[in-house]
Every structure is written in structure tokens, then in C-alpha cells.
Amino acid sequence: MRILVIGSGAREHALLLALRRDPQVTGLIIAPGNAGTARLAEQHDVDISSGDDIVALARNVRADMVVIGPEVPLVLGVADMVRAAGIVCFGPSKDAARIEGSKAFAKEVMAAAGVHTARSETVDRPAHLDAALDRFGPPAGDPAWVVKDDRLAAGKGVVVTPDRDVARTHAAGLLEAGHPVLLESYLDGPEVSLFCVVDGRTVVPLLPAQDFKRVGDGDTGPNTGGMGAYAPLPWLPDEVCQQVVTRIVEPVAAELVQRGSPFCGLLYVGLAITANGPAVVEFNCRFGDPETQAVLALLDSPLGQLLYASGTGTLADFGELRWRAGAAVTVVLAAENYPGRPRVGDIIFGSEADGVLHAGTTRRDDGTIVSSGGRVLSVVATGADLLAARAHAYRILRSIRLLGSHFRNDIALSAAEGKIHI
Ligand code: GLY
User: Fold this and answer.
1) What is the DSSP letter of 249?
2) How far apart are CA 406 and CA 330, in angstroms?
3) Which residues pair with 303 in a beta bridge?
4) Omega of the bond leading into 251 within 30 degrees of 0 (cis)
5) DSSP assignment of 23-61, as one string?
6) Is-contact 156 141, C-beta < 8 A?
7) Model pTM above 0.70
8) What pLDDT score was predicted for residue 71?
9) What span, in angstroms and rounded, lies between the C-alpha atoms of 96 and 98?
10) Which residues, 6 or more positions from 286, have their beta carbon under 8 angstroms from its beta carbon?
11) What is the pLDDT of residues 246-285, one digit of tens each?
């Protein structure tokens, strides 16, 4: 089976590494990729928002399946165009991808499916903002305001703050830019990312993971696309994952089938484990980054065959997934000033070691690898337990040099020390 992977992040690098382990995968192609993925697959340039270009490339490289990594092409309907061309695609249709593309749509689906989530309100006019702010945050008994961009924002559109002025400024800025704002009640409890491969009604969960969204140690500073992750979660009882599948993911998948837009691809559920049980923070329509790097490092089942089963509607016959023993930790190395406008164009030393996945990197004509984005590299390591996996990941990370770069020092630390309780 020849597989074309669309994307250029560490998530796609991790997908290639896992696909390579599948004995039925005979060819791997990546577009547009980065300096690290070029070593693993035939690499082509492509405009990821152009369905026509992706279909032409898929035909040109004789792909049996296209796997779409990022949300932007999915929300634009690229998976529909690939399927219309008669090529198997892993990734939801434009209609189903609205579960990530519009938070208001996701709330509507959850309400119809009876799923536990935060109370919310969409504000689309500045004149309505102050009254809406009074119905959330401390005036409404919540510890903080949760203000979200209703549109795609690469993880950076969310502000959680006890300060009304900060909440108001963020919301007003979004409204001024023409983006509706979602205000939500605060969900208290440790967060979990559960990725589920779905083909309409059949749901196959992967290992649960936890990511770290704030830029600084101790969950300080602004939100990012994700600074690290680990899997599995020693503090999460197995029955909670099963509950999430039966009470949340299956009803949402069934609701989307009922609406005529079945979800086929990776349904990512972001949850808070509250005192009242798991509650949905968000849905995404694709593999999460950086959790994918940790989760796929532990997958023993053949990933190409799993994704193909989703793309062909045969997931019910796939059987139970197999996992490697132990734990995996991934830590992101970010460029100076990320999540603000990142410094780019600096030479990276040590980026070709085992366990170093690339995201914002480019290889220059002289062979040097330079930074070209905010999240530059993602180091992933496994070990017998979280302490061993962390030690291994940080050892690799400390051998990399990039001027001005930064990373969190506390990825998976609380979990490794047994300090997370639900
Ligand atoms: N880990 C957050 C995301 O992928 O959106």
C-alpha cells in the first residue's frame, strides 16, 4: 500500500515513523513535509489548502490512500475531493470537520447527543459582550472566564483568566477581527486527550494522553499549540476511557451519521475529568500535536491498515489494538518568542538524532538545517515508565542547540511523581 501523508509538522513525522512499521506499507510520500520527513519518505511540495493539487499529486504518486494531517485542508473539504477522485482518504468530510471548524456547531452536536460539556454562549456583536461576560467567570461563580475564538486558531485562540479586563480585551479583539467569540464556563479537573479512529459509527480509541498547552513550566504564560505530552495516563482508570467512548464519542458519531455527515477519520476528544465525570472541552477532526508523537510511539498494531480500515468503512473488522509496554514522553523545542512571532532562520545542531521529530525546519542547499516555524522540533522517547521516558527525552533534548530556543522542563512530571488525582 502506497500512502500519501499531507502536512509538515512533528505529527506527520510521527505518522510516517509509525506507518513505516506496518509491513503492508510499501511506499510513503509526504507533502509538503520538512527537513526531517524528507529522510523517511518521497517528499513533494503542495498547497495543502488545494484539493485539486492534492488529488493531482495523489494520482501522480499512485497513492492507494491519502492521510490528511492538519485541520485546515479538512475544514476546506479536501477529503471530499480525494474521495470523489476515487482514492481512499483518512480524514473527515468538510461537513463532519465542522466539529472542529466551528465550536458553535460542536456545541449543537453535543447538546443533541446529550454529551457533558461546558455551558456556553456565542457572542457575535460587541454590543452584547459585557452582558455575556457577566453570565460567566467570577460573577457567575466560576473561577475564571474561558474565551475562545469560534474559528480555527491553531490552539492559540483560547484565553482562560480570572481577570475580566483580560477576558474582555481578548474577546473584543476577536470580534473586531470578525470572529465570533465563544464564552464558556470553566471545567475544573485534569485534562485528557483521547484520540478515536472512527468510520461512521465504529469507534476505536487509542491510548489516552495529556498535553501541555501553556508555554511555561507550572502551566504559566500564554497558550500554545502544545509544548509536550505523554501517554498513557497512569492516574486515569481504564473504565473512564470506556465511559468516554460509550457516553461521548459513540453518541456524537451517531449524531453526525443522523445529520448525514458521518465522521470518518480521527476524532480527537479533549476532556476535563471533573468531579461530575468526564466533560468535553473540545473536539478536533485530526490527530493532535504533540500527543500523537507519544501515542504512536507505543502503537504496536499496523497503523496503515488501521487508517485504511477507517477510510474503507471496515473498522468493525479490525479487532483490538495492541500497545507496547511502558510509557512515552514528547517535549517540544520552540523558537525564541514563540507563541508570539517566532525567530526563524537559525541553524539547528543535533536535530538528526534518533527520537527527534521535525516540525518547523528546512534544509538549506548547503545541507544545514534551519528553524522555520514556532514549534521547531519534538523530541519523543519511550521507557519502562514515565520517569524513564522523561529522563530519556530530556537527555536527547539537551544535546540539541538552537539559539534562543526554549522548552518546558516539567512535561509529565506531576504524573510521574503520582501527583495527579481525580
Ligand atoms: N494538542 C492540541 C492540538 O493538537 O490541538
Assistant:
1) I
2) 14
3) none
4) no
5) TT--EEEEEE--TTGGGTSEE----TT-HHHHHHHHHHT
6) no
7) yes
8) 97
9) 5
10) 68, 69, 70, 71, 74, 91, 100, 265, 266, 268
11) 999 999 999 999 999 999 999 999 999 999 999 999 999 9
Side-chain half-sphere CA neighbours of 242 within 13 A? 3
pLDDT of res. 302: 98
Cβ distance 89 to 285 under 8 Å? no
How far, in Å, is the centroid of ligand 1 from the Cα of 318?
26
Q: How far is the CA of 156 from the centre of ligand 1 (A)?
A: 10
Mutate to test the pocket of ligand 1, among 281, 284, 287, 292 (most ligand atoms within 8 A of CB): 284
In eight-state DSSP terms, residue 315 is G
Give the pLDDT confidence score for residue 154 in this predicted structure: 64
Please give the grid coordinates belonging to residue 74. Answer: 479538512
- Three-class SS of residue 138? helix
pLDDT of residue 155: 60
Helix (DSSP H) and strand (DSSP E) numbers for the chain: 14, 22
pLDDT of residue 68: 98
Q: How far is the CA of 226 from the centre of ligand 1 (A)?
A: 6
Q: How far is the CA of 203 from the centre of ligand 1 (A)?
A: 20
Q: Where are the alpha helices (DSSP H) in 3-149?
A: 10-20, 51-60, 71-76, 78-84, 98-101, 103-113, 129-134
Under DSSP, is residue 185 helix (H, G, I), strand (E, B) or coil? Answer: coil
Residue 189 is classified by DSSP as S
Give CA–CA dist 92/101, Å, rounded: 12
Say how far residue 177 (Cα) sits from the centre of its chain: 25
| CA atoms lying within 13 Å on the CB side of residue 314 | 9
Taking CB atoms and a 6 Å cutoff, what residues make up the pocket around ligand 1? 155, 211, 226, 284, 288-289, 291
Give the residue ranges of the chain where pLDDT is below 70: 153-156
Cell of 385: 515508565
